[in-house]
Amino acid sequence: MSSTTLPPSGEQKAIRWYPPSYDIRVETIPIPKIQHPDDAIVKVTFAALCGSDLHIYRGHGGVNKDHTCGHEFIGEVAALGHSYGGDNTGRPSLYSSLKIGDKVVSPFTVNCGECHACRLGYTGRCPEGFLFGSPALEGGQAQYVRVPKAGGTLFNLSDPSTWSSNLSSEGKEKALATLSDSSLLMLADILPTGVFAALQAINHPKVAPIITGKPWPLCFSQNAPSSNQVGLTDEDRILTVAVIGLGPVGICATVSMLDLLSTRQIPYKFVAVDPLESRREKVTAVYKTIDAAGKGNGEFAACSTDEAKDKVKEWTGDVGCTAVLEVVGNTSALTLAYDLVRAFGVIVSVGVHGEPPLPLTGRQVYNKNVSFDFGRCPARAMFPPAFDLLVKRQDVFGGIGQPASLVDQVVDFSQAAEIYRAFDKGEVGKVIFDPWQAQA
Ligand SMILES: [Zn+2]
Ligand SMILES: [Zn+2]
């Protein structure tokens, strides 16, 4: 046995949170060990800071136990439990094929990959699922992390035969050889979440008349039975969509939505909304960077909250947006989503709503016939389409620190407390920690 196959032992550095709030420390703690035969230990190459880390950081999560932070990480397999190798018929294929040294990215929650919820693709709600970087499960902002149910959870970037893609096998191999780890890390949460938000909107029944050109309820039938109304006009078939919140997930949702609109040749009017000017500049740079084919046929405006209401009114009269993607998760964002959405529209909300109750009455919801699609992205199930989009949009997802880049900077652990503070204040965009970089 070579030394590289020995399980790691000893101590490691980790970024840890302490209650009640705003207390981030870099500490030396034991390297995690295999606790269950289905576990893997992953040596973390990069770990990212995410907007949803801020809920606990601010003390809003109802959490009172210190723990290692972070739910977005990429790395390589350093140790495997006894379940791996041998005959694992009927279990996720990684229990047979995953090896020490494989490059892997993890979704932000554990998912077994073999229960009813996972079989349906609802991996974000696996009954055995835990969120990394919570009191229930130590996070990935460390040199090593323990991944429970790793055969169902991890995505094996060293073995592209383990997932489907619209790319050819050669296309996948080439992408994996050229994509940077900082780019692939976007698969851990923000890109699947953006794709999920966009897909939920575009596949929603309320959007079908615009996409099919057939009115409700004929939009669902194969044949188009004759009826007694005037046909849809070209104007009727323009999809007006708003994205509220232009942090990293909002950018991913915007890019995903533009990709769906352009590939399906759906004409659109697109309002990207954020109160912060720096974020509006970012989304504008992203839109400019995407080539004509990736933009399709539409108009695009980056707006402040007030500008958004005026722009939607200008573009749709008093009708409103057919789809609103609410990527923030607070009551003011949801109130704005309601104000912007049309009657018979859909609001997709992927932000973590921390403060009950929702700011809407049943009567308001009734009066607009509005549909809501709330909740956590089933990230593991979304990896294949997210990977394809990551490859296609390297102009946005490939760089670091450019005007159109999603990732602002890569830093070492010594800057953790300051970066958390700056991220909380909106002073920096997406930041990646390199746990192995010599501390400044
Ligand atoms: Zn995240
Ligand atoms: Zn499951």
From TrEMBL:
Keywords noted in UniProt: Metal-binding, Zinc
Keyword presence, Metal-binding: yes
Cofactor(s) required for function per UniProt: Zn(2+)
GO MF, one annotated term: metal ion binding
Residue ranges annotated for the Alcohol dehydrogenase-like N-terminal domain, each copy included: 37-150
Entry keyword Chloroplast: no
Domain called Alcohol dehydrogenase-like C-terminal: residue spans: 301-390
InterPro entries per UniProt: ADH-like_C, ADH-like_N, GroES-like_sf, NAD(P)-bd_dom_sf
Pfam family, one: ADH_zinc_N
Protein name: Alcohol dehydrogenase
